[in-house]
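Hey L., structure's done. Input below.
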Amino acid sequence: MRKLNKILIWFPSLFLLLASCTDSLDLEPVSTISATAFWKTEDDAKGGLYGMYDRFRDVTNTNLFLWGEARSQSMKQSVGNDYTRVRIFQNTIDPIDAGPSWETLYKVVNNANLIIKYVPDIEFSSQEEKDRILAEAYAMRAYCYFVIAKTWGDAIVFIEPTEGYVPDELYKERTPVTEVFALIKEDIDKSLNHFSNDDFTSGRNRWSRPGANALKADVYLWTAKLMGGGDADLTVALDALNAIESSDVSLLDDFSGIFDYDNKGNNEILFASNGQQFESQSTFMRNMYIDAIPPNAEPEAAEIIGVPAGASYWTLTDESISKFSEDDQRKDATFVEFYTLNEDTGLYTDFYGCLQVKFNGLVDNGARYFLDDVVVYRYADVLLMKAEAENALGQDPTISMNKIRKRAFGDNFEDHVFVNGGQEQNDEIILNERFVEFFYEGKYWWDVVRFNQTSELVPYFRDNPGNEDKILWPIGLDVLSQEPNVKQNPGYLE
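Output:
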C-alpha cells in the first residue's frame, strides 16, 4: 500500500477524472483534466489502476453485503434501529425506497473502461506488467456487470469511458441480461488471456488469474442453473475451479485467522478489497458490533467485546443460530451470543443479541476501526463451488465437501463426515455449508437465488408465493428520473 499512497500523492487530480460519474448515471465529467494530459506514462496507467481499486471500496464497504446477503432474511433487527436499511432486510424494498443504486458499480466500470481504452497505447518497461493491468481492468468490469446482472437483471452497458457530455451516448436503454452475460464472459476470457501466470500481488487485493478463474466459475454456475446453460456451463465452471488448484492457495487451519486485520493477503485469499487505517472508511460490519457493554451482561462479556464500537443494529435469527454446530470452529469465529441477567432466576438466560466477530477490525489507541478486507473470493469458495458443480453434473462432491468440514470440525470431523446422497439432498447440504462458511461475507442471498430456493428459505417469498419478479431489485425513482430510457423491473410496476 505504500506505493499506492505515493501515486495518490502524485496524482491528486486523478480522482476527479475517474469520478466522472455524478448522481446516478449522469456521467458528465467534473474535471477539465484530459486524456492527452494524463494517459501518457506507465505511472499514469498505474495511477488509473489504483484509482479503480480505490473506487471499488465504495462498492464493497457496504453495498456488496446489502446486495448479496441482507435479503436472505438470515438476520433481524437487534437492540439498535437501522431504519434506513430495514426494508432491505425485510424484503419490502420498492422504487421509493430501493436501497443502494448501481451508481458505485458504474463508477468502477468507467475506471476500468478508461484503462482498457488508453493503456494499450502507453509504452511500458515490461509487456507483462502492461498486460496485467489490462487483465485486472477486464476482470473488474466483468465482476461489476455480474453484480449488476444478478441484482437488477438487464443493465445499461458502457464499454467505452465517458469523457464528455454526449446525451446520445449517456442515456441508453438497458441491454437484455443474456447479452450482459455474454459481455461478462468475453471480458473474463480477455482477462485470463492477459495474465501470464498464477501469481498474486502482495496483499492479494488485486485481481489475479486464480481470482479471475473464481469469477469465471461463479458466472458459469449462475448461467448454468438460471439461464439454461446446463451441463456445458457447469463443465466450464468446473474446469475453471480445477485450474485454481495449482496456484498458491490453501485452507488456513484457523478459520478466524482468515479475516484478521494483521493477516491480510493470507494463502486462503484469492481476491479481497483492501481496507487500511487512514485510507478507507469502515465497512458495514460496524453495524453488527456493539457500542457499549450490555447492561447486566455475563461477566465475560467485557473481555469478549474488548473496545466497543459501531452499533448493534442486526443480529442472527434463531433459525440462523441453529444452523451452526457447537463443535464447529466457524461458530465462535463468526459471532458470539450475549445473554443478560434474568432477575427472577439469577441466571444469564435473557438473549440480548449476537456480536459479529468475523470482521472486528483493529484496535488502535483505544479505538476500534472496522477495516478488515472485504473478501470477494477465497479458497473455501473454490471448494464449495466445485462441490456444487460436481453435484449438478452427477459427480461425487465428497472430496471437496470434506476438505471444508475437516477444517471446520477438526478433532470432531468423524462426527460430521459428508456422505454422498442424491443430487437434491446434496444441494441442500452444500447450500447450508455455504451459509455457515460465508456468513457476513455478502454471498448468501445470491446463493439462495442460484440454488432456486427463495420460496423455501426466504420468509418473504415463502409467505408471498407468486412474487418471484421481486427477486430482482427495483430501479429507484432517483435513477428513473435521470435515465429517461430506463424501464422499471416487472415486479415493481404498480
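DSSP finds 21 helices and ten strands in the chain. The mean pLDDT is 92.

-- N.
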